[in-house]
Structures
1.
Amino acid sequence: MSVFRVWKAVFWSFFGIRKGRDLESDAAHIKPVHIVIAGLVGALIFVVSLIVLVNWITR
């Protein structure tokens, strides 16, 4: 299991685009706790990016 594999799975899940074979492979190799942590960090980065973008545009 690699950090890159977890981030890739979370990234594509945010878009809702996953190949069935990749999903099965990830389910066999990635622990759910790693997905949850990466998902929370990814969501936090996304929200902070939106806030920064809106503040930059409205100045």
2.
Amino acid sequence: MLICLVLFAAPLVAQEHPGKEIARHFNNNAGRPCVEYRDGSQTCLDGESMTSSPALRPQNRAKFGFRQVANRKFWLIAAGMYASAFYDVEGAQHCIRVRACKEANPILGQTRGRQYGVKLGITTAALIPVYYLKRLDMQDNAEGRKSPFPWWAAAQMVTGANLATGTVNWRHTKHTNCPALGAGCR
């Protein structure tokens, strides 16, 4: 916090003495941001200058706890994300089992366990920013602002991508090349 204060306050202090080269930034004994110039002179901000600058004002945003952010709506969206990941993996596994296709993504692999591990990990990694987007949306709403991008839209992009690829996999199995007597096709 103090480092940010010094970095934001230094340009304000330097504006008081245009044309002087700054040698270093530091805090004086009172904790005020100061600038030392190459000619040896120093300038420090007083308390009023620090709070009057919009760049130095602390952000007093509303704070929301985990349970407030991760409410029923959040978990419903998360359940949809995970369900679509299951749908995608099962569609791919069915397509692989009837020998209609093979997994094109080398990271996912051909086995069910590997696909579940990778897909659920990716879904969890995508859910973390959704949580923070929801918290930012709640803070904006508390301040009376409307967020330009709703938090649930990011989650729906993941869900939509999983549903699209899963549906392609399931549809692809209708045109299968099963061997005679259905060996390997279940």
3.
Amino acid sequence: MADIENNTGESPPLSQSAHSGADEYALPSKVRPEPSQSLNQQPNQSKTGNDSAEGVQDHHPSVERALEALTAAKITVVEYGAQPLYRFGSQEPLVLVEWLIPDESLIFASQILLEHDFPHILFPTEHGLWDRVQGALTHAVEGTELTRIQLVPLSLSGLKLSETIEVPSTFAPELRILSPKPPPIHAFPD
């Protein structure tokens, strides 16, 4: 496993931030690559009636564009919320996109989204506090009033980059991001 520590204040490249040997955690079994495929290859996908790839988490098309912009800017992105749950079988559509971002990269990540036409959403201070995470930056997604992208400081989650693994995104398997490691499986004593 690569060394996670980075004292320069920059987010480490994905290849240095987590190991990628977690084939069993990549995507639900209906999307998991065949043994002859590596995780870097996109699995064979058939189109469904709603024109989304089978086995790929339902999402607004602009969300993929946002993730592409962040990864192109070398920002470490850790999936959170509905995305890891999807790996465990939850079929929840991706409406609130939650990404953990290292604290030192949070403002830069938000700026990247602003430059790619994902405006900030400012919540009133007296109402709607239940709808925001303290310290998170929320961005609107064009073409929808429901979908939001929430950039959450990594420190707020209590998760460390050393506790993540590199995986294909649940909605864009060609993009590699980080995900919290699954909990260890504990067997009952014999």
4.
Amino acid sequence: YKGYASEAKHGTVRDFYVFKEKVYNHFLESHPEMLLRK
């Protein structure tokens, strides 16, 4: 069970980063001017 929980947690973290990247890319497409303010 311990190994399964570890795998599940790792998968969740990976999915979270993929989701965050999608949201970030969508945000830049919607607000390109934000990128130019850096």
